[in-house]
Inverse folding.
């Protein structure tokens, strides 16, 4: 990562999976990710994925000690002071799953919002990398994030307290803004579905990406949906069980 900091923005996305090698192979075939391993201070290695422009996130092998959480994607938000974010999250009714913890390249804490979605506060020591332009982003990049929750209004207020995000509106949808820039939206979760963050992954061709996912043991959870002037997406469950959105930008 460069020395550029993008405080308040989502700068990393981590896949929690029961089978890291299988997930690695699946996404490499789907969007062409390359992988690098980074030694961890306490031993072991951290697997990172990315493209020709740099690393974009990590892949973590889930263990029994992780409390039985299902496979999922989790955004990382760049902050200046992780401990202060943790204090604000607790005061606003959130829970702390891990941390604050110093892992060498930075300090992080995993935060659960009052409705049950998980997100990570991250303070890197070497910058966050340059922002990607969603309009020109190629396959393999993440262009957007959606919070699915049982109480959109309360959830938006919580993230405002913790990260300083503002609330906006786009095409009738509640959006979350960092430094006046829209970075995510908030949607009601389907009945019976726990709150979660949905990360939107850019693919070259939507039908083909969905077919690849289903053909390898995943499932299409939502048919293609058009977002006027923005693009088209479909929600799938990858072969290892994590829910992700496959997205094709179509700006106009």
């Amino acid at each position: 990562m460069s020395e550029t900091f993008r405080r308040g923005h989502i700068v990393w996305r981590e896949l929690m999976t029961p089978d890291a090698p299988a997930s690695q192979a699946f996404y490499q075939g789907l969007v062409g990710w390359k992988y690098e391993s980074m030694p961890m201070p306490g031993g072991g290695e951290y697997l990172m994925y990315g493209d020709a422009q740099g690393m974009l996130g990590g892949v973590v092998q889930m263990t029994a000690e992780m409390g039985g959480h299902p496979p999922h994607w989790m955004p990382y938000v760049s902050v200046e002071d992780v401990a202060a974010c943790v204090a604000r999250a607790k005061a606003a009714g959130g829970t702390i799953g891990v941390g604050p913890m110093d892992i060498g390249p930075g300090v992080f804490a995993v935060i659960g919002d009052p409705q049950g979605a998980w997100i990570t506060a991250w303070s890197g020591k070497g910058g966050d990398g340059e922002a990607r332009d969603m309009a020109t982003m190629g396959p393999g990049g993440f262009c957007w994030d959606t919070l699915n929750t049982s109480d959109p209004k309360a959830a938006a207020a919580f993230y405002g307290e913790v990260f300083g995000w503002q609330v906006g509106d786009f095409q009738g949808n509640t959006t979350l803004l960092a430094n006046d820039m829209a970075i995510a939206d908030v949607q009601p979760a389907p009945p019976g579905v726990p709150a979660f963050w949905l990360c939107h992954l850019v693919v070259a061709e939507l039908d083909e990406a969905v077919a690849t996912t289903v053909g390898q043991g995943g499932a299409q959870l939502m048919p293609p949906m058009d977002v006027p002037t923005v693009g088209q997406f479909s929600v799938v469950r990858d072969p290892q069980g994590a829910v992700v959105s496959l997205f094709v930008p179509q700006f106009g």
Observations:
- The helical segments are 20-31, 82-91, 152-163, 206-215.
- The mean pLDDT is 93.
